Fold:
Amino acid sequence: MIIDDEPAIYKILSKTIDWAAYNMEIVGTASSGIEAINTIDELQPDVCFVDVQMPFMDGIEFSKLAKERYPQLAIVVLSAYDEFRYARECIGIGVFDYRLKPIEKADINDTLKRLLRHLNEQREARGEEPEIPENESVLDQGRMSHGIEKVREYIQTRYFETDLNLTKVANAFGFNPSYLSRKFKNETGESFVDYLNKCRVEHAKRAALAGKPMYQIAAEVGVPDPNYFSRCFKRYTGIAFSAFVASERKD
Amino acid sequence: MAKKSSYNRKHRRGNALPKSVSETGDTHLPGNATLWGVHSEEGAGEELQTFSGDLREEIETDAAMTGKKRKRGFGSFTLKQKLRRLFTAASVLYILSIGFLFIFIYQNQIVDNEEAAVVADLQTIAKTVQTRINNVNEYMLAMTGNDVAKKYYTSIIAPKSEDMLVDNNDVIARLMAPFEEVSSVFLIRYDYLEGLTKQEPYSMTSSTLRLNPDVLRSKLSILEDKRGGYVVWLNGDGILTPPRDPVMCMLRIFYDAQTQRKLGVICATFDLTQMTDALSSYKRDNREYIFYDHENKTIYATGEESKFREYDAVLSANKSRTTRGLLRRDIYATYEIPRTGIRIACLEHYVLWENLSYKIVLVPLISVVLMLVSLIILDMLIRGYITRPILKLSESMQAVKKGWLRRVSMETNDDEIGMLKENYNEMLVEMNRLIEELLEKEKSVRKTEINILQQQIKPHFLYNTIEMIASLAVDDETPREQVYDALETLGSFYRQFLSKGSNEVPLSTELEIAKKYLKLQKLRYGDVFTDEYEVEEDCLDELLPKLTIQPLIENSLYHGIRKKGGIGLIRIRVYRENDAVCVELYDDGVGMSEEKISQIMSDVEGQHFGLRRTLERFCYYEEREDCYRIESREGEYTKITLMLR
Structure:
């Protein structure tokens, strides 16, 4: 996954790196830490390339959160800043590598080689972890509806939290995130992400009637990246936020 | 800048900063340390002299100047030399003054005493002589009551001496006997003197003294004037002619005891020894005596008569005088024996060292010795408590010349020297502290300079823009011209942005820079904003400080537009209003509340210090505070207007 507010990095990485040679592919992009938080659960990447300098939530903050949720996630931080304090913080968080912009092909390839080795080692170790047995899911059936109901409640009361995502909720309830994702979908018929975003959009609609500016509403519903927010809004309502506001005003 | 001219020096080698104060408290200031002055607008930092070098130069110049002005006077000797000389001078002075005091005052006292002694002696001698003369007078008076003598004077015919002798020899002789002084006697009748009779005068004499009646006759009136008194003359002043040695002669008129009729003259003689013997017990090696008669003729002198004459000229009788002199003095005294006309004078040669007893000398000697001893002790004390500590102190201060600021660690008492040491050490500590402060300041100034330099290059902008252009190049769909254009814009932007030259540029240049900047940013961020320009052509030549517009635009982009989301607008308008050219920078970003604006403008090191600094620079250039306007509504827009006059 490539997380950068400028499309340059994505363009360069996609064009100049032979991902297939590393048995990797680019599964998605995000242009802010906020967006990344919301989409990482779906994408479930093994590696994130993260730019430090991003508005609304910078790469460091994102890395912190991501590492909490996905300790196995390998993060490569890209920065135009050659400053030790950033690097030190990143080491503290546990990022895999820290590269300077503008990126050089040789450096990136070098990092990927190391990454591959690292991931293979990880996979071997992980291979011994048992998958969650089916009978467990059967056993929990009684609790499931109650649990999902609780989850829905949880979402409704905490939709505005910026870092609220599948993993966080799963951890809060003690579930495996992918397990929760499956169960949620099975039980409610829609995905966790959809439900969360819909919840947010509803609240945003109500706030829009109060006449607040978009960036403020975006922050209030837990998506402080106004660009990502407007995309989400459009996706779930079918119309652009500005159009919605205009039509409401007419009434 | 001009004020620093006296400290301008050639560049010294080395960029190393001096070491800070070590644990022992020393600071070494190598002469090659350089202090950088504040980055001037001209570009090159001006160099100040090293701290220690400066001070050194000043001190040396001072010393040289005062050395020229002042001759090598006493003040420029070392303390030791000074002390030695002062003490030597004091000792010499003291010894000399003691000596002089002793000689003058003490000696004068002695001499006065001696003078008094001489006078006293003279008086005693005179008394003795007078007693003897009185005795002779007594004899003559006794003779007036003597019948035999009377008979001689009163008989009509003067008896012959032989007759008198034969008859009354033993009476005369017996009369003379108790009067030892009298050696002979003459009885002379008036008629003999008048020449009427030829009777010989009666004489009782041991030797053949011849009487000269003519002389006697001539002196008769003097005798008569005496009216019962007598005269004492050497050789009767010619009346007598002694055969050999001179003889003293006393003469008086012989009166009848009852009738008081003048009968004649009686003359008694006594030997000179009667007078000179009186001197015997007062004879000294250094004394001369002289007897003068009534006419100041010498009767008898023990020494050179001429010496006495010198003093006679200035002294009258019964006075004494001492000549002035350091080691030798002459004491001259003279005393007249009353009623005799005989004067005794004494001349004493007083020589100092012949009269010194060891007791007298002991006093000044002990005094001098005590003085020397006390001076030596004083010298030692001063040396120990003052000179030596000061020398030590000054030695350790000398070490400063070599560049080591070492604190003095010697032991001192609690006196002023100790205070000096303490103050000196404190001063050193303070100096060290100041030096450290200075170094810290220099370090931070350098840091700031480097920061400013780096910031001016805008490295992050550069990296990101290069990255962006690389992505364009890598993308198949991007035409090569676009890549070239982007590169050209980047190069051109930096050429203008980094140009050294005057600090004022025309508006046209500033706008170009802003346009290029925005063009590159648009490429980077895609559809985040659009830019509009409304510029009145005739305003383009107005001058304003370099890099005023671009930082403000950057601020609008990052803090206004990108925070809002959606597509923003940046608009630059340049127009003339009244007598000012206005540059209006408009963006429809998140805006700022009044609070936020004032917070930003007062915040020194906050996130938005770029905005504040740029506006401050502009105000400084325009030389007034009201050269700009910020209008903003939260959530809607921000408009910054710069007014150029």
Observations:
- Residues 114-355 of chain B form a domain with the Beta-Lactamase fold (CATH 3.30.450.20).
- The interface with chain A takes residues 459-460, 463-464, 466-468, 470-472, 474-476, 524-526, 562-566, 590, 635-636 of chain B (CB under 8 Å).
- Chain B has 16 helices and 21 strands.
- Confidence is low (pLDDT under 50) at residues 1-53 of chain B.
